[in-house]
Design brief:
Elements lengths: L22 H12 L2 E3 L2 E3 L19 E3 L1 H6 L6 E4 L5 E3 L4 E6 L8 E5 L5 E5 L1 E4 L6 E2 L4 E5 L15 E7 L5 E2 L1 H7 L11 H4 L4 H14 L12 H10 L15 H11 L14 H11 L6
Antiparallel strand pairs: 1-2, 3-4, 4-12, 5-11, 6-7, 6-10, 7-8, 8-12, 9-11, 12-13
Length: 295
């Protein structure tokens, strides 16, 4: 099992900003990203007192190779390990401001996402940083690439390729991100799309489609609800299982949409398989995308 030894890995908390990246810079970036207001040095959301950040699990499609309890049992402060190949793109679990920490002890290359109201998320054992310190990001923005191969630069004390994820609360205590997501359903996971009711696809519909394609079909772009060539190429790949035999070129046509209608037919669509998407086709597709596994 590609799992770190938690007692030797990720024991430290990379909680302090690096030289050259001040707390004020981090708070300013968070405020710009989330629409937060800084009052008396404390970041808060307009009209909401002490609002928790909106966090989702970007790694639900990967096998957990080390649980929170596994880490505690081995003397670690805690974390969740997800088995994934070196070089896998890592989406931000929520909006915030980036801080990169090279060679962060046993955790190796670490990226910290400073969220609103003092919460932080940390990804460890990265093989590559992608964004500069202080960069403001939204949920789903790719912030780095996974690593963890034994002895590779940035791996720390990892014993196999994987990603380590934990959160830190405003008091500086490391917390289980999966528990946090489960306890904050308003902010944890992607919202359901109303396309299931009105038959009109919009940004939330496409975010859910992108997340489904990320989990199942190799999509590596942002979860931004703006489909482009990469989104549609992944859709065509996914539709191989529904009779699509055309090119994976990211330019959907009649045959791509016929395959989507075949998928939708398993979710209440009863119309013709003609490749002409309409409200009923979109509703059926949306019922599929609204399943909890694509949150």
């Amino acid at each position: 099992m590609n799992q770190e030894n938690p007692s030797r890995c990720c024991g430290g908390d990379a909680g302090q900003p690096q030289a050259g990246l001040s707390r004020r810079t981090l708070l300013r970036g968070t405020a710009l990203t989330t629409g937060a207001l800084a009052v008396g040095g404390v970041v808060g959301l307009p009209g909401i007192a002490h609002a928790a950040p909106s966090i989702y699990n970007p790694f639900s499609g990967y096998r957990i190779t080390g649980t929170w309890q596994d880490h505690l049992n081995s003397g670690s402060l805690g974390g969740i390990d997800f088995g994934m190949g070196v070089g896998t793109n890592l989406p931000a679990c929520g909006a915030g401001t980036i801080q990169n920490i090279p060679n962060n002890g046993t955790g190796g290359h670490t990226v910290t996402i400073y969220h609103a109201d003092g919460y932080r998320s940390q990804y460890m054992h990265l093989s590559q940083f992608l964004l500069a310190n202080g960069t403001a990001v939204g949920a789903g923005t790719i912030v780095g690439r996974s690593g963890g191969a034994v002895g590779a630069p940035g791996s720390g004390s990892s014993t196999g390729p994987h990603l380590h994820w934990h959160m830190i609360n405003p008091s500086g205590v490391r917390i289980n991100p999966l528990t946090y997501v489960g306890q904050n359903p308003g902010g944890g996971g992607l919202p359901k799309t109303s396309t299931e009711q009105d038959g009109i696809p919009g940004p939330i519909f496409y975010k859910r489609m992108q997340n489904w394609l990320r989990i199942t079909s190799g999509y590596t772009g942002p979860i931004d609800g703006v489909p482009g060539v990469n989104t549609y190429a992944a859709l065509q790949q996914a539709m191989r299982g529904y009779g699509y035999t055309g090119p994976i070129d990211g330019v959907p046509g009649t045959n791509t949409w016929k395959a989507v209608q075949r998928l939708a037919s398993g979710y209440g669509y009863t119309g013709p398989i003609d490749g002409a998407m309409g409200p009923n086709s979109w509703r059926g597709f949306a019922r599929f995308l609204n399943e909890d596994r694509w949150n």
